[in-house]
């Protein structure tokens, strides 16, 4: 079904508003709303913080005139249940909206089409699936978590045009430019957690914080099968003020003690066939703790392990117009690798964004690794 240019225009505006809630609404979805009468925006809002009013109620509160008879554009189907706030369907009915234009359907079993049905039962015209793909993509982590209760995992890396993540000496700072690095920090603000392997901790001693004004630091997770993270690592020393989880197969309480004393959390998980952290089991454990999304920023070893375990849902490749060369220079995905092209992880056609001189390619995982 094709939609009018006006409907598309205002839904794009609603999408841009929704994104403003990034880092503040999890585990709720990002939602934006725009109220229009006779080609004029008379109110708009977004879900700004967890536990606060939803986008529709914020838009209604910001109206410059009565919304009776107007159209509201909302990126996600209005809720019809009592949660932290009353149902948005009630507010739209009470305020006399004549038309509701919806982007995504809500997969939450408490909504799942009921919101649209209630609105129609009250004589409100409802138009669905306007910019559905864009609206769905915005809330892919929320949709995945609602359905699976495990985190939505984004594998992110920066590489040169010849596919290197470091030089032959191991130097990697910086591959991309400042604009691309700012985007990385926006994603650290958006996703609930960031995960690396112990190899990255040993090589780079990172902080894994968000460095944008007003940003939120993600929960920091280190996959450390044998618990070899140095107690002097910056991640450990800052664990008293920044949530830090060490995921390990080590069950020795004496080994745990210095990390616990520093403020780290220890999450013991089973080992996989290779003796490393079982990443599928780790996702179940993190999901049970309410962690709905993770950006995976480790090196090539962890990237391969994550792909092999089938836990990756989206891939973000930042590509810099540089060439490092070097047969031994590291690549984004290492491990054993597949034997044949047909065994590869299959990705969707990439969305391409230019960030200064660099490119960001983003694809969804559509078929997991087929190892030979």
UniProtKB/TrEMBL annotation:
<protein>
    <recommendedName>
        <fullName>Riboflavin biosynthesis protein RibD</fullName>
        <ecNumber>3.5.4.26</ecNumber>
        <ecNumber>1.1.1.193</ecNumber>
    </recommendedName>
</protein>
<comment type="function">
    <text>Converts 2,5-diamino-6-(ribosylamino)-4(3h)-pyrimidinone 5'-phosphate into 5-amino-6-(ribosylamino)-2,4(1h,3h)-pyrimidinedione 5'-phosphate.</text>
</comment>
<feature type="binding site">
    <location>
        <position position="200"/>
    </location>
    <ligand>
        <name>NADP(+)</name>
    </ligand>
</feature>
<feature type="binding site">
    <location>
        <position position="225"/>
    </location>
    <ligand>
        <name>NADP(+)</name>
    </ligand>
</feature>
<dbReference type="InterPro" id="IPR004794">
    <property type="entry name" value="Eubact_RibD"/>
</dbReference>
<dbReference type="InterPro" id="IPR016192">
    <property type="entry name" value="APOBEC/CMP_deaminase_Zn-bd"/>
</dbReference>
<dbReference type="GO" id="GO:0008270">
    <property type="term" value="F:zinc ion binding"/>
</dbReference>
<dbReference type="Pfam" id="PF00383">
    <property type="entry name" value="dCMP_cyt_deam_1"/>
</dbReference>
<feature type="binding site">
    <location>
        <position position="211"/>
    </location>
    <ligand>
        <name>substrate</name>
    </ligand>
</feature>
<dbReference type="InterPro" id="IPR016193">
    <property type="entry name" value="Cytidine_deaminase-like"/>
</dbReference>
<keyword id="KW-0862">Zinc</keyword>
<dbReference type="GO" id="GO:0008703">
    <property type="term" value="F:5-amino-6-(5-phosphoribosylamino)uracil reductase activity"/>
</dbReference>
<keyword id="KW-0479">Metal-binding</keyword>
<keyword id="KW-0378">Hydrolase</keyword>
<dbReference type="InterPro" id="IPR002734">
    <property type="entry name" value="RibDG_C"/>
</dbReference>
<feature type="binding site">
    <location>
        <position position="297"/>
    </location>
    <ligand>
        <name>substrate</name>
    </ligand>
</feature>
<comment type="similarity">
    <text>In the N-terminal section; belongs to the cytidine and deoxycytidylate deaminase family.</text>
</comment>
<feature type="binding site">
    <location>
        <position position="204"/>
    </location>
    <ligand>
        <name>NADP(+)</name>
    </ligand>
</feature>
<comment type="pathway">
    <text>Cofactor biosynthesis; riboflavin biosynthesis; 5-amino-6-(D-ribitylamino)uracil from GTP: step 3/4.</text>
</comment>
<feature type="binding site">
    <location>
        <position position="174"/>
    </location>
    <ligand>
        <name>NADP(+)</name>
    </ligand>
</feature>
<feature type="binding site">
    <location>
        <begin position="299"/>
        <end position="305"/>
    </location>
    <ligand>
        <name>NADP(+)</name>
    </ligand>
</feature>
<feature type="binding site">
    <location>
        <position position="172"/>
    </location>
    <ligand>
        <name>substrate</name>
    </ligand>
</feature>
<feature type="domain" description="CMP/dCMP-type deaminase">
    <location>
        <begin position="5"/>
        <end position="127"/>
    </location>
</feature>
<keyword id="KW-0521">NADP</keyword>
<feature type="binding site">
    <location>
        <position position="88"/>
    </location>
    <ligand>
        <name>Zn(2+)</name>
    </ligand>
</feature>
<dbReference type="InterPro" id="IPR024072">
    <property type="entry name" value="DHFR-like_dom_sf"/>
</dbReference>
<dbReference type="InterPro" id="IPR011549">
    <property type="entry name" value="RibD_C"/>
</dbReference>
<keyword id="KW-0686">Riboflavin biosynthesis</keyword>
<dbReference type="GO" id="GO:0009231">
    <property type="term" value="P:riboflavin biosynthetic process"/>
</dbReference>
<comment type="pathway">
    <text>Cofactor biosynthesis; riboflavin biosynthesis; 5-amino-6-(D-ribitylamino)uracil from GTP: step 2/4.</text>
</comment>
<dbReference type="GO" id="GO:0050661">
    <property type="term" value="F:NADP binding"/>
</dbReference>
<feature type="binding site">
    <location>
        <position position="188"/>
    </location>
    <ligand>
        <name>substrate</name>
    </ligand>
</feature>
<feature type="active site" description="Proton donor">
    <location>
        <position position="56"/>
    </location>
</feature>
<dbReference type="Pfam" id="PF01872">
    <property type="entry name" value="RibD_C"/>
</dbReference>
<feature type="binding site">
    <location>
        <position position="54"/>
    </location>
    <ligand>
        <name>Zn(2+)</name>
    </ligand>
</feature>
<feature type="binding site">
    <location>
        <position position="158"/>
    </location>
    <ligand>
        <name>NADP(+)</name>
    </ligand>
</feature>
<dbReference type="GO" id="GO:0008835">
    <property type="term" value="F:diaminohydroxyphosphoribosylaminopyrimidine deaminase activity"/>
</dbReference>
<comment type="similarity">
    <text>In the C-terminal section; belongs to the HTP reductase family.</text>
</comment>
<dbReference type="InterPro" id="IPR002125">
    <property type="entry name" value="CMP_dCMP_dom"/>
</dbReference>
<dbReference type="InterPro" id="IPR050765">
    <property type="entry name" value="Riboflavin_Biosynth_HTPR"/>
</dbReference>
<keyword id="KW-0560">Oxidoreductase</keyword>
<keyword id="KW-0511">Multifunctional enzyme</keyword>
